[in-house]
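We modelled the chain as a single entity of 214 amino acids. Its sequence is:
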Amino acid sequence: RRTARRYNEASAMRRLVLAAALAAFGSDVAGAAFVGLRRASIPLKLAGATCADPPDGLPKYCCQGIVPDPDYAGTCECNPGWTQKECICKAHLHARPCHHCMVHLPATNRWAKTFSKDELYENCQDCVGRCKEELDAGDCGQFMADIFGQKFPEAAPADVLCTSDYLKKQIMKGDYPLDLKRSLFKAPRLRADDDFHQPSDWKVPGVGGGSPGA
């Protein structure tokens, strides 16, 4: 019975954050016509263009000298070699692949100590594994290897996503979707029975935080 309750709690939390991620995705799609949309992490390589010899029509802001500008190198207008589907998948639909899985981390301050830290980290890893399988089998599956490689060039996605450092880096960004921030982080508060994992005293823009009682 206890195992079933814990599974239901984790499933409910995952659905909550996934809903926030989808809401953020909806906002991105609504603004897809705005070609300056930025990605959280982008490759310093352009498709169908090079900053060393930029083609006519390539926006000047795509480059910083002879290298791509990291703020714009992941946008559609700076990658003329992308197909329309590739543009939609890479620049809009999967700008933050599997970020909802970070809800499982102890650093979110959301989990009761009935879950051990090892269990929470394992749940995050499992979530990323399921997420990757679903994305690989989805409409953008043909581009997911490129997307994951660009987002996580030095390690497996789960090994990056399931860390408190990466969580903090994302939610501290000013342009990270607010609904997703609020789903992935809860400000710590004083609890008489100290029954929750609350290791993070970050002051998250739009959410708050800091040491409880400070």
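As a brief sanity check on the tokenised model: The first strand starts at residue 63 and ends at 64. The helical segments are 2-30, 84-93, 117-136, 141-151, 157-161, 164-171, 178-184.
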